[in-house]
Amino acid sequence: MKSPLLNSLLVLLQFVIVSLTYDDRGIMDSKRRTSNVCRDTSECPTNAICEPRSGGVYDYMEGQCVCRNGYFMKASGKSRECIEIADYGELCYMNEQCEFRLGKESFCNNGQCSCKSNSHYVITENACFNSSKIGEYCRLTSNCVVDKTTCQQGQCRCFRKHHPNLNKSKCLRDINLNEQCFTDDECVVENSHCMSGTCQCKSSHVRSEENDQLCLPLATSIYQSCQQDMQCSSIPNAVCESTNGTCVCQKDHHDINAVRIIKDSSTNDELVTFEISFNFFQRCWSSVRLNGICESDENCVIAHSSCINKRCVCDEGFHETRDKFCSNAQKVQISFLVVALVVFTSMRLF
C-alpha cells in the first residue's frame, strides 16, 4: 500500500503533465481548458470534453473540462464557454475567433475573418501580417506584401536578378540589352527600353562599344561631351576628341559656323579664326581650299571665298594670293604705286 505522501506526489506530477498539454497548433491548451472540474463529459460546457487528470489510472480522481479541437475557451463573467475557431474567410461573430490562428492583425469583418487594413494574408503561414512594400521596414519576409520580395537587413527587397518597377508595386526580372522583353520596365540597363521585343538603348542614347550593357548619351551637335566615337554618330563626319572629351569635326572637315581660315599660322595650316554663331553647330562640312571642287559655299574653308561653278574662288573684291588665300591688299598697293608714279612724273615735268 502506497503512503499518503507518495500518492500526493503522483497527483502533483499528473497535474503538471496535464497542464503542459499542447493542442494541434503547438499552442498550450490553457486556452482550451475551462477550469471546470468534472468526472464525465456531460458535466462540461458545450463543445468541451472531460479529460481525467490521472489519465484514468485512479478512479477517485476528478478530471477537467477541455474544449474540443477547433475550439477555444472564452470567459464570460464567472462562466466559461467553448467558441469555434475560424480561419481566413470563414464565418465568425467575434474577433477572438479569427485572432486565435490568424493573429492580432486579423478581425471579424462583417461576419467573415479578414486581415486588418495595411495587413495581408500569407497562405503558407495561415496568418495575417503587417504589410510592407518594397523599400519599407520589415521584421519578417511575411511582412513583404509584394510578390518575389524578401526581408533583407530590415527592408523588403526584390529577389536576386530582379528589380522594382517605377512605382515599386512589383518585382520584374532583370532583362539586359538584346534580351527578350515585353515592357519597358523589364529593361534593367539605364536609358534602355523594350523595342521590337528586345531591350535596346533609347533613341537619345547609343550602345557602348566597350561595354555592351551600357547606353551612352547621343550627342546632337558638335562640342557636346562624349566618351566614344559612337556618341557623335548622329553628326556626319564628327568624331570624339579624346583629349577634351567632346565631339569635333574629323580631319579635313570643319564647322562653317565656327571656323574660316584667314591665314596659315604654321605649316600644319592651323585654323586661327573662330566666329561663334548662335545657330549652334549641327554639321561638319568637307573642307575645300581655293580652286578645289565644291558643292556649296559652306565647303569653302578659306575666308572670303565662295563656291562658284563648283570651284572655291575668292569673292568679288578679293584676289588669290601666292599662298592660296583671298586678300584685297594688292589693290591697295597698286593704287599707291599709281599715285606715286603720277607724283614722280609731275616733278620731272617741272
Characterize the structure shown:
The protein starts with a helix and ends with a helix. Mean pLDDT is 81; it is low at 7-29, 264-280 and 332-339. Among the domains are: 10-84, no CATH class; 95-130, no CATH class. The longest helix is centred in the last third of the chain and has 21 residues, at 329-349. The protein has helices at 4-19, 95-102, 329-349, and strands at 33-38, 48-52, 63-67, 71-76, 79-84, 106-109, 112-115, 119-122, 127-130, 149-152, 155-158, 162-164, 171-173, 192-195, 198-201, 205-207, 215-217, 238-241, 246-249, 253-254, 285-286, 305-308, 311-314, 319-320, 326-327. The protein has 350 residues and is α+β, with helices and mostly antiparallel strands. Residues 80-119, 168-209, 282-326 form the EB domain. This is EB domain-containing protein. InterPro entries: EB_dom. Keywords: Signal. Residues 1-21 form the signal peptide.
Key words describing this protein structure:
350 residues; 3-stranded antiparallel beta sheet; alpha+beta
List the helices and strands and how they pair.
Elements: H1 4-19, E1 33-38, E2 48-52, E3 63-67, E4 71-76, E5 79-84, H2 95-102, E6 106-109, E7 112-115, E8 119-122, E9 127-130, E10 149-152, E11 155-158, E12 162-164, E13 171-173, E14 192-195, E15 198-201, E16 205-207, E17 215-217, E18 238-241, E19 246-249, E20 253-254, E21 285-286, E22 305-308, E23 311-314, E24 319-320, E25 326-327, H3 329-349
Antiparallel strand pairs: 1-3, 2-3, 4-5, 6-7, 8-9, 10-11, 12-13, 14-15, 16-17, 18-19, 20-21, 22-23, 24-25
Keywords: Signal
Signal peptide: 1-21
Pfam families: EB (PF01683)
